Amino acid sequence: MPPGPSPVFRVALRGGSLLTNPRWNKGTAFTNEERKAFGLTGRLPHRVNTLDDQCDRAYDQLQAHENDLRKNTFLQSMKDQNWVLYYSLISRHLKELMPIIYTPTEADAIANYSHLFRRSEGLYLTFPHEDTMEEDFLEQTRGRDIDLVVCSDAEAILGIGDQGGIGIASAKSTVYTLLAGMDPSNTLSVTLDVGTNNEDLLKDHLYVGWPHERIRGEDYDRFIDKFVQLVRKYFPHSLLHFEDFGVTNAYRLLERYRKHHSVFNDDVQGTGAVTLACIMSAVGVTKSRLVDQRIVVYGAGSAGLGITRQVRDGMVTIDNVSAEEANKRFYLLDKHGLVKQSLGASNIRGDLHEFVRPDDEWSDVEANPNGEITLLQVVKKVQPTVLIGCSTQGGAFTEEIVREMAKHVDRPIILPLSNPSKLHEVKPQDANDWTDGKALLATGSPFPPCKQPGGKEYIVAECNNALIYPGLGFGAVLAQSRTLTDTMIVAGTRRLAALSPALKDPDDALLPDFGDAPEVNLEVAIAVAEQAIEEGSAGVDWKKEEVREKAEAFQWKPIYGTYVYDTDGEQA
Ligand SMILES: NC(=O)C1=CN([C@@H]2O[C@H](COP(=O)(O)OP(=O)(O)OC[C@H]3O[C@@H](n4cnc5c(N)ncnc54)[C@H](O)[C@@H]3O)[C@@H](O)[C@H]2O)C=CC1
Ligand SMILES: CC(=O)C(=O)O
Ligand SMILES: [Mg+2]
């Protein structure tokens, strides 16, 4: 984030209260005038540092930690102490530090959340305290104008499953600030603690969440609804972001609330959008149309179905075919292999119904005794042009499967999207080698470039929803849209696809580099807000031409500014 002009802030906090408030703390960067005015002279060592000096020191301290999990813990502590320093440091080393505060390292931090716990960092809403939910909500949000609420019930975190804790909501919220410039004072991370079915957590006396099996059914729905209604009542223009809910709840909650509030499910819609942009870029390289693809999706959960629907909708809008026609291009597999009629209702979730393959299409393929058809069998018969993994099954795209795919298509498009890195369906270098360097690749977590024959390198794009969700959410907040519509998401997706390096050079990456994620997300946000204005869902009365300037002005930047002591000034 480029530094803007230095703003002046009126601040009411003094002394220790100022130094322990992460929003306002400057540490050694308080000037001598500020130290006098705020009672800090005796509380700080002599030298006044610049933010650059502080970043240098913090970076050195970070390097002293021997592994990524410890670095994650160190950065978390820094976030608890000083937001400007934290966000400046990460922005300056974005590509190096994103994998520490997000996937893959955040997965380890979340798995160890209770053991690493130091201090609270958001709103903890726990089922046994349902009666006091409104008081708890107001206590945590008093005096704040919340634009963004990120919530999770922590049932399906990344690919590591039921973990409890606020970690993923907090990490996703941090990424909104880092990549879209959402003011962290106006964001709220929420854990909806309805218990956990993770036996290890239930047995662990250090587990900090509610040690009780997950609440389901009417009790769950009532609890979630109470929370959503509080968000709607107190922050009607906010974006409500759902993260890492179990697949059934993910779809149900999205459908239930999206007509009434600006609601977004990242695993469904964010992943769908970034993957559609990635595939649009790849079909540009293969000089084919979206609708001409045969797409195999391995893992038909939140992400798998979200991608399928988004790419299907892309075929409908871009290639002008009916949804029924486009549905036929997809072959979904889940735990019981290919999703086909004879698996029966007990093995096929209702929301997959549009994509169930007819049995007679597979009469020539020998199913196993349970009637299941494997990925290899599907690849052999379908000869897919695109193979997507969101199954959490590391290594599922074996050499045999990848080589089989490459026999039938010149440039196989292979997207192992499961996170964290150890759960990727195939290592990009392996997929590259098994296809003689022909595969067009993108992954869910960052990987180094693939070494090609002859010493060239192929850059593996990171197809992670963080390349688009901060922009989608920021665009909706900026436009004060009461709903986040499919057409707004498509506008953001098209803007991302237009920025793909492979459009200019087919040997280049399928998506923009994560080092450019702040600029990319700003472009996405502008496209989303413009679309909201155009379709009349915006709550602002700007012209489309004004959006860029408004977006840049709205962004929070990690700069200190000058403080003036004022008892009526900022206190939170
Ligand atoms: N790259 C990105 O931006 C994103 C990546 N993901 C990743 O995708 C993976 C799935 O995430 P969600 O869809 O949210 O989880 P989910 O739990 O909703 O979906 C996983 C699906 O895989 C299926 N599955 C499990 N074992 C299987 C097997 N042996 N064969 C075929 N299918 C199998 C499950 O039944 C389930 O339907 C996770 O690793 C997650 O980190 C999720 C969202 C975004
Ligand atoms: C990236 C993300 O949202 C996930 O892996 O669940
Ligand atoms: Mg997720």
Automatic annotation (TrEMBL):
Q: What does the entry list as the binding residues for (S)-malate?
A: 419, 464
Annotated GO biological process: malate metabolic process
Which sites are catalytic? 102, 172
Question: Which Gene Ontology terms of cellular component type are present?
Answer: cytosol; mitochondrion
Residues of the Malic enzyme N-terminal domain: 79-258
Q: How is the cofactor bound?
A: Divalent metal cations. Prefers magnesium or manganese.
Q: Where is the Malic enzyme NAD-binding domain?
A: 268-533
Query: What keywords are assigned to this protein?
Result: Metal-binding, NAD, Oxidoreductase
**The organism's place on the tree of life at top rank:** Eukaryota
The record's GO molecular-function terms, alphabetically, read: malate dehydrogenase (decarboxylating) (NAD+) activity; metal ion binding; NAD binding
Co-factor requirement: Mg(2+); Mn(2+)
- Entry-linked InterPro entries: Aminoacid_DH-like_N_sf (IPR046346), Malic_enzyme_CS (IPR015884), Malic_N_dom (IPR012301), Malic_N_dom_sf (IPR037062), Malic_NAD-bd (IPR012302), Malic_OxRdtase (IPR001891), NAD(P)-bd_dom_sf (IPR036291)
Q: Where does a divalent metal cation bind?
A: 243-244, 267
Q: Which family does it belong to?
A: Belongs to the malic enzymes family.
Q: What is the protein name given in its UniProt record?
A: Malic enzyme
Taxonomic source organism: Cristinia sonorae
